[in-house]
Amino acid sequence: MSIRVLIADDQPIVRTGLTMLLDAQPDIEVVGAAADGREAVRLAHQLRPDVGLFDIRMPLMDGIEATRRLAGPDVTDPLPIVVITTFDLDEYVHGALKAGARGFLLKDAGPALLTQAIHAAADGDALIAPSVTVRLLAAFAHAQTSPPRQPIEPLTAREEEVLVPVAQGRTNNEIASALYITPSTVKAHLASLMRKVGARNRVEVAMWAHETGRI
User: Fold this and answer.
1) Which strands, in side-by-side order, build the sheet including 81-85?
2) Which helix H or strand E contains 70, and what residues bound it?
3) How buried is 164 (Cβ within 10 angstroms: 0-12 exposed, 13-18 middle, 19+ buried)?
4) How confident is the chain (215 residues) per 10-residue block, as mean pLDDT?
5) SUPFAM superfamilies of this UniProt entry (predicted)?
């Protein structure tokens, strides 16, 4: 089955380009395109896509607010959203991830990374552009003013081993290869980590790892 994607970007040429690029993939289908965040929220409720691909700077409602409304902590059935932007600004990335985004890419990321991020979001995973991952998480860990939350149960030795490469932006397959375990075992450890630290996805797990000084 195809992954149904909703695009939101205020530039018509970008919407057209992203639509052509994604529709060219054998297992991705663009089902709608919005010119602003308000329209994106409306179309998301109407079309029920599998993944949203949202720009940040848009009129009427920006991509971060649209993400918060569709994927925020209070949303019962959150839409997996990948934020894509030309602006490599830390506050944008952090704002998007705090709002519930499953991924963050720059528009120069290229087709391979873009489709990888779409697949990751659809699979309940998350992907951040490698160029910003570690720098971003480390910077905001240092800026953290409140003490990080403690896990509801102590982490196992293996969970600690999995936590480090997750915080470095590694994929499940890369982690599995490095630790000589299967990708499904990595997923199981990641699910346990999310439960213990109160995270909704691997990005929040990575943020917690930096906040607690594990990286």
Assistant:
1) 28-34, 3-8, 51-54, 81-85, 103-106, 127-128
2) helix 63-71
3) middle
4) 93 92 92 96 96 92 92 87 74 74 79 85 72 58 64 92 85 89 92 89 79 78
5) C-terminal effector domain of the bipartite response regulators (SSF46894), CheY-like (SSF52172)
Which phi and psi (to 5°) does residue 26 adopt? Answer: -65, -20
Look at the block and give the residue holding tokens 């691909």: 53
Taking alpha carbons only, the member of 202, 101, 102, 100 closest to residue 159 is: 202
**pTM of whole model > 0.85?**
no
Q: Under 8 Å CB-to-CB from 104, ≥6 apart: which residues? A: 82, 83, 84, 85, 93, 96, 97, 128, 129, 132
Instruction: Check if the beta carbon of residue 85 is closer than 8 Å to that of residue 79.
Output: no
